[in-house]
């Protein structure tokens, strides 16, 4: 028998076994396969099984879509709630500030009544200074701060120059007079200071020029 195999001669049973083996290899190679998690997975052979697999995938996609819609709705509700809370907080702060300003206004009205009945100028000045102090403290409580300008180097982001005035060399480019005070709100400029800026006279400029030439 072994001699016959070497010469390519097989009996009928061996021929059938070889054909079955070849058919099995061919079926496996022709069957479609997918990769899932790094492993090969054979697709269902029947149409019913394929339809069932597609149905399950469709249900899974619908479930993911529904979860996404829920997340979007929750985020939208969260955004609206945050906006509402911010608006309510701003309204509360504004209400509190208005009430405090009304208290200052009441004191100003009382001061005017007293001023009309007395000739004591010093008492009137003291009353005005006291109201100014209270108002400044109230503004500081809400983050309002005055801008330091007098004697400072002119800064266009903080100061608004309304005039240049003749000054000494030391005051050149500096604020020599504050016309109207500026303010910041929590570090942001809400009103720039109106100022006058020092500038050298033509005589001083000429002297500086001559000094530079002589050197």
Summarize the structure.
The protein has 215 residues and is an alpha+beta fold. It is built from five helices and eight strands. Among the domains are: 73 residues; 61 residues, Head domain of nucleotide exchange factor GrpE (Nucleotide Exchange Factor Grpe, Chain A, domain 2).
Question: What would your notes on this structure say?
Answer:
Helices cover 60% and strands 19% of the residues. Among the domains are: 70-142; 145-205, Nucleotide Exchange Factor Grpe, Chain A, domain 2. The chain is of the alpha+beta class and 215 residues long. The protein has helices spanning 2-6, 12-30, 47-117, 121-141, 202-214, and strands at residues 33-36, 39-42, 144-146, 159-167, 175-180, 183-185, 188-191, 193-200. Mean pLDDT is 78; it is low at 1-10 and 25-32.
Query: Level of helix content?
Result: 55-70%
Number of helices: 5
Gap from first CA to last CA: 122 Å
Give, in spatial order, the strands making up the sheet with the most strands: 3-6-7
**Shape annotation:** elongated
Strand content: 15-25%
- Report the order of strands and helices: HHEEHHEEEEEEH
Number of strands: 8
List keywords for this structure.
alpha+beta; disordered N terminus; Nucleotide Exchange Factor Grpe, Chain A, domain 2; about 220 residues; 8 strands; three-stranded mixed beta sheet
